[in-house]
């Protein structure tokens, strides 16, 4: 799952970043992120020009266009509905002048934005991360039957049907995706549960929530030097392994915690701030007294 979140950082999508890793027989066979496809296969990556400047292709990723095509199409659909209602003169009795017409349009637009129109995703240019990874397997001829797909977000219903068709046996996800109708549309092929050991229910694709170390803590717990905690030493100066189990003196907190709860820490911080504030006030008083004395002696014509 850490690799899936790592893959998601490649995405330049304007809405969300999603990453996918597909494994088969405990080997990673493909990765993917939600990104705009390019000709000759794959998705857009940043490129360096002859001068070494790294940039994305013009009109490649959505941010290069300057807008989200899916959101713009949703807006067009809403405007089309409002225009058709006005043409049929259904609510003419509510529209008396230009001002009331604008109010009516705004209210109707607000209502339509709360409908399923806001859940439409098929007008986006990006290839979803799941499809990106599956197509990577297609391009190189890697089988996906009985593979496991790790996804940072619950798959949408469009990706879910392709996951089923590709022969994926297990899907592990982290973040929910309320817009997805995968279970409603494919309850014959998908179940959401953890298959217990020895269970015979292996005919459907299992969608299960991820259980394990979160991506934000992965390096802190497993990296020898890249984490936020202390560095891990696995051997001593002689080359022998450090005995953590037998010698308690070698055991240290990987990521030390504060002894107090955050409320206690805040109170201590306030005390320190007030103390320093008083010191600053005292320092200001001394400076002002010194300046007054200097001015007094200057005007008196005396030397200090």
TrEMBL record:
Biological source species: Entomobacter blattae
Record lineage: Bacteria, Pseudomonadati, Pseudomonadota, Alphaproteobacteria, Acetobacterales
Domain CMP/dCMP-type deaminase: start-end pairs: 1-202
CC terms in the record's Gene Ontology section: cytoplasm
Domain of life: Bacteria
One protein family per Pfam: dCMP_cyt_deam_1
Keywords: Hydrolase, Metal-binding, Zinc
Gene: tadA_2
Protein name: tRNA-specific adenosine deaminase
MF-aspect GO terms: dCMP deaminase activity; tRNA-specific adenosine-34 deaminase activity; zinc ion binding
The family this protein is said to belong to: Belongs to the cytidine and deoxycytidylate deaminase family.
Enzyme Commission designation: 3.5.4.33
Keyword Hydrolase: yes
Record's keyword annotation contains rRNA processing: no
């Amino acid at each position: 799952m850490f690799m899936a979140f790592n893959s998601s950082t490649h995405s330049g999508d304007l809405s969300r970043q999603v990453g996918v890793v597909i494994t088969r027989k405990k080997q990673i066979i493909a990765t993917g992120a939600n990104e705009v496809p390019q000709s000759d296969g794959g998705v857009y990556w940043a490129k360096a020009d002859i001068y070494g400047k790294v940039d994305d292709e013009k009109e490649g990723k959505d941010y290069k266009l300057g807008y989200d095509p899916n959101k713009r199409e949703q807006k067009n659909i809403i405007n089309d509905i409002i225009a058709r209602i006005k043409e049929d003169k259904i609510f003419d009795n509510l529209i008396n002048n230009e001002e009331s017409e604008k109010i009516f349009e705004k209210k109707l637009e607000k209502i339509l934005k709360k409908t399923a129109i806001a859940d439409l995703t098929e007008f986006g240019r990006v290839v979803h991360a799941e499809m990106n990874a599956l197509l990577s397997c297609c391009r190189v001829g890697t089988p996906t039957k009985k593979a496991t797909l790790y996804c940072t977000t619950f798959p949408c219903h469009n990706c879910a049907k392709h996951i089923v068709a590709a022969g994926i046996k297990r899907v592990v996800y982290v973040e929910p995706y309320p817009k997805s109708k995968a279970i409603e549309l494919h309850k014959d092929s998908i179940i959401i549960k953890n298959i217990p050991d020895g269970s015979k229910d292996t005919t459907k694709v299992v969608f299960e929530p991820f259980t394990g170390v979160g991506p934000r803590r992965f390096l802190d717990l497993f990296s020898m030097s890249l984490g936020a905690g202390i560095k891990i030493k696995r051997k001593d100066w002689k080359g022998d392994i450090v005995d953590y189990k037998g010698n308690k003196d070698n055991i240290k907190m990987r990521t030390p915690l504060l002894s107090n709860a955050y409320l206690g820490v805040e109170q201590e911080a306030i005390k320190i701030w007030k103390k320093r504030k008083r010191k600053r006030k005292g320092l200001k008083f001394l400076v002002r007294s010194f300046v007054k004395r200097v001015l007094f002696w200057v005007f008196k014509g005396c030397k200090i």
